[in-house]
Amino acid sequence: MKKFIILSFAVSIILSCGTETDLTFSKDIAPIIYKNCTPCHRSGGAAPFSLTTFNQVNRKKNTILGVTQSGLMPPWPADINYTHFLDEKYLSEGDKQKIKDWINGGAPQGDIIHLPSLPLFNNFSRVGNPDTTVWFDSILVTGNSRDKFYIATLPIELDERKYVRAMEFLPNENNLVHHMNGRLLNYEDGAKTSITQGNRLLNLELPETDYIQQFNALQLANDNGTRPSQINSAVNYLPGVEAQIYPKGIGGFTMNKKSILTADDIHFGPIPQDKWDHSRVNIFFSKEPPKRPINEVMLGTNGASKIIPPLVVPPNKVTQHTSFLKIPEDISILTINPHMHLLGKSFKAYAIKPNKDTIRLISIPKWDFRWQYFYTFPKMLKVPAGSIVYIEAEFDNTIENQNNPNNPPIEVRERLNNGGAGMRTTDEMLQFIITWLPYQEGDENVSLKVK
Ligand code: HEC
Questions:
Q1: Do strands 280-286 and 275-277 pair parallel, antiparallel, or not at all (unpaired)?
Q2: Are 447 and 433 in contact (CB under 8 A)?
Q3: What pLDDT is attached to residue 8?
Q4: Which residues contact 74 (CB under 8 A, 6 or more apart)?
Q5: Considering the entire predicted model, what is its pTM?
Q6: Nearest CA owner, ligand 1 atom 9
């Protein structure tokens, strides 16, 4: 009898190390998933499958264990130990440990009485009620399981010039569009007779000569051949980030009666079957003119500073490049966006003040072309006149780079602007976009979070 007690005691010790856990889905894990995963992993969300119920999570638990421990999910390539941004997506070490212990402990459901209610999501807007909604032409996304990159254009006519507070991009189908960067071409009255005659779509992987010809067929220029004025980053989209909106009084722009929104580029993820994309743009007008319209400056490819050494990446090599730009006046930085293509390996940006202090901007130790966020600082970041912004980037043109489009690798280089036709995905780019305002006293205390 005594022997049996000792034995069963030993068995229960063995059980409790490794196969049992007090953690349950309902009480401990659901709150972590609902907050960090469900915003994308839900019906109508950007991810390919839902994580909203115990069964859905339980079915995927092995991959969830892998992607949460490796840091692949939630996706956030920026190093949170270097700088912080709004809406950061990452799991605390404590939450990671809980997920691991729960899965290794058999992933019990627990009493559903503890289950928190699912957060509410609006599939038609993350911002509010739009004043108007406009649609891109449908795009057939072929199911050849490859990434695809296009320029898509959307002509918009208004009765009168209007002030815009924000634009929001929404794909009709989750998990189809992976990212899109939208620029608004604003035509002055009388500058362009028709904005609807040009082609509406350009494949960014065409061979060079076709590409330039097809770019011209988009007919984006004014009637006299000059380029219209443009609002860069009028709208950007990444799964989980539909609109770039700042607190009242910051940002916004004027939209002329005739304009063309160009998604350049729009990236569709790999899918196994043909699907139609029918993406839309919500526009939020404002009665007041923009008080502090934002400015953009870009370092690198086609930008205000040159890349050193020039961006040529020989086959089977990893190369390092830098670029720097002096800031002539006191500025307040709102948002930054590093941009590279498939060979990108790592990225870092910082500013050196005239007194030699460093202002950290961003570090991305492991570049992932799928997750090119526009990173907004929690508060405006002052960079004083005379500071120099530096970027440092690495490119990997070996076969170790799983995203290398060429096997065996071939020389890849940047392509400079050719009447705006500079962006084929299989060429490389190194850009760093800074969205800024002229500095005003007290800006460093202004929160950029929109309530
Ligand atoms: C910002 C949106 C977003 C968030 C937040 C997010 N995911 Fe994902 N997830 C995606 C997308 C999109 C994919 C499809 C793969 C891709 O595009 O990289 C994906 C893929 C996955 C996969 C499949 C990976 C594979 O290799 O097949 C798993 C598992 C996953 N996510 C789990 C999670 C978990 C767990 C969380 C929360 C801790 C989370 N995701 C948070 C967007 C998101």
A1: unpaired
A2: no
A3: 46
A4: 36, 37, 40, 89, 90, 91
A5: 0.87
A6: 47
Tokens standing for 223? 């009637």
Q: How many CB atoms lie within 10 A of CB 421?
A: 20
In the block, residue with structure tokens 């139609």: 276
Domains, the chain, ordered by start: 2-114 (no CATH), 132-286 (2.60.120), 295-445 (2.60.120.230)
Q: What is the pLDDT of residues 201-222, one digit of tens each?
A: 998 888 878 888 999 999 999 9
Alpha helices for 326-417 (secondary structure H): none
pLDDT digits (tens, 9 = 90+) for 87-109: 999 999 999 999 999 999 999 99
Pick the atom of ligand 1 nearest to 67's CA.
29
Rounded distance from Cα 74 to ligand 1 centre (Å): 6
**127: closest CA among 241, 233, 292, 268?**
241
Helix (H) or strand (E) holding 122: none
pLDDT of residue 138: 95
- Ligand 1 centre and the CA of 187: distance in Å? 40
Q: Cα 190–194–199 angle (5° rounding)?
A: 140
In the chain, which stretches have pLDDT less than 70?
1-19, 174, 240, 242, 416-426
| 309 cis-preceded (ω within 30 degrees of 0) | yes
Give the mutation target among 36, 37, 50 for probing the ligand 1 site: most ligand atoms within 8 A of CB: 37
CB 327 within 8 A of CB 386: yes
